[in-house]
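Predict the holo structure. Ligand: zinc ion.
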Amino acid sequence: MSQIYADIIIDISHEAIDRTFQYMVPAELENSIEIGMQVQVPFGQSNRNRKGYVINLTDIPNFDVDKMKSISGIPDKSLQIEGKLIKLAAWIRKNYGATMFDALKTVMPVKEKIRKTAKKISEKEFNLTKPPVMNLNESQQMLIDEFVAHQEDGDFKTYLLHGVTGSGKTEVYIGCIKEVVKKGKQAIVLIPEIGLTYQNLARFRQHFGDRVALINSKQSKGEKYEEFMRAKNHEVDVIIGPRSALFTPCQNLGLIIIDEEHDGAYKSDQTPKYHAREVAIERARLEDASVILGSATPTIESYSLAKLGKYHLWELPFRPYGMELSSVSVVDMREELRLGNRSIVSKELYEMINDRLTKKEQIMLFINRRGFNTFVSCRECGEVIKCPKCDVSLSLHNNGFMMCHYCGHVERTVKECPSCKSKLIGGFGTGTQKVEEEINRLFPQAKTLRMDKDTTSKKGSQSEILSEFLDNKADILIGTQMIVKGHDFENVTLVGIMLADLSLFDNDYRSGERTFDLLTQAAGRAGRGDKKGHVLIQTYQPEHYAIVAASNQDYEGFFDTEMTYRRLLKYPPVYNMMVVLLTSLTYEDVSIASEELTKTIKNSILDDKNVRVIGPSDATITRIKDLYRRVIYVKTKDINQLENIRNLVDTYEKDGIKVAVDVNPVNMY
Ligand code: ADP
Ligand code: ZN
Ligand code: ZN
């Protein structure tokens, strides 16, 4: 037998050696070695043992065999990456920028064999919902018929299912999955982590029984491994999970569904900063599968692609017969203040809550709290208590401590202003706790539940709170974004949105879109039962287009206005945008480096009018964990041009400076 050589990607996160290295495969490994396997190899001068992945096997050496080292072994717990996922990793690396090793790690969310029988979700937890005894309506059936026709033709499309909240999108997903399962194929269903409720899973269980695997971040490594293997061995037909479940190895993938495709959680916040929607479409292309993206509020990106015909647009504009969309009213909080009401509860909301309490109906109060916390400030001199390591204010928790949400720094709440010594210092802002306190003061007879980061940090506490509310053990559920995702509460007839405009203060181009999404999703929680629901939006900016569109439940109108702004301001999806983030321990170093890199980029594009380089400037948060942050923005319509610039940025090296890129970012920098 002739000698075999292996091309190996080695575990070193360094651009300069981000390439394959060739090793000899020793005779004793010849029969077991395969592409995708993890191996141990001696590396560098010192011949230190390093981990690597085999990405190619050949019998032609690419350099002097006398100098070539041999693979030292195969770790026995390691899992093999599928060939198709290696291709996907290469695509991720090319599109988002990363070392090949990082890209390989990304497509392998479960890396080790760990024996452990998964704790099965108990039947009781699954019985939170009564089985939906229903026939698909005409609109739903039409979509599924069309899907079947495309499947018969071997035409594997990307569909965008735009359906109002409660229009029955999940039933369409289930119908389509049944079709691919009939053909012996598997489906991956991505759901934002927060929406992975038992209620949601139970619906899939009712149709696919035991042949459903579930992956979530609260599982142990062993539990995840078990579920992965069930998928890999085709012991399950459906895999449900958050973003990383996209990389579940499947024997025969037929369909990828991304529910709530507008959700920010589909974009990875670690290098490679990939977007699950884009990667899903590429994976589907590699494996002849279809993709369904579903949302009541599709991203501007997806909807414009659907309008251009790149995605196949499906619309479900109505809820099934008998279930009406809720009515909506808007309260101008400025007016409320003028009338002398200083409470965070407007007069109209007060009366409506009272009415529901007497009727024994339930209420949800939603606080749009993203990027907004209760911070500690001095009423006399205006001093705000900030984290010593980050340029952000500390958040007040009611346990007597203040905390930094960026680095975890904790300190005791101050009793006097460190600047002017005034005792008039305290919490400011409207957190969920504040709202709960106010509701308890106004409605002492009502039983309230609160759901936010603080009350749900324990494993299982989220579903406990939800099932308590579902069992009518409380009248009012108060919460953040968490309460707007995918839960059906039949007895909820009022949804109050406390401060609709808070998310408009985020200074990034998606804040309008995010606000519209949140309001629409929150509004969609009311009236899920037989009784019609009402949504009350409290805002300081009732004239803002995102709030106007949300109160009219007018997605098209919102889309048109938003696209006009994006076009005008050259933002995605009209332009591609890349952020280059530089960080360093001193402000001076990062300033010099960012000026230098900006010049390099500008020189490389000469006077190409199609590329705009903006900055350098300070990032929105100028310091995190002692590191100063500067940003450069690059905008262009041509994605290849962006790739060239990214490659250029990758080669930039300077002592003490870290450079990271994010293509079409979802969050502000
Ligand atoms: P979405 O995913 O669009 O928010 P769901 O699929 O959760 O909507 O459906 C909303 C509600 O309507 C659920 O309670 C579901 O059981 C019900 N439903 C869906 N399709 C039908 C139908 N054809 N007939 C009656 N009820 C339906
Ligand atoms: Zn901090
Ligand atoms: Zn002060």
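The two ends are 56 Å apart (CA to CA). The longest strand covers residues 611-624.
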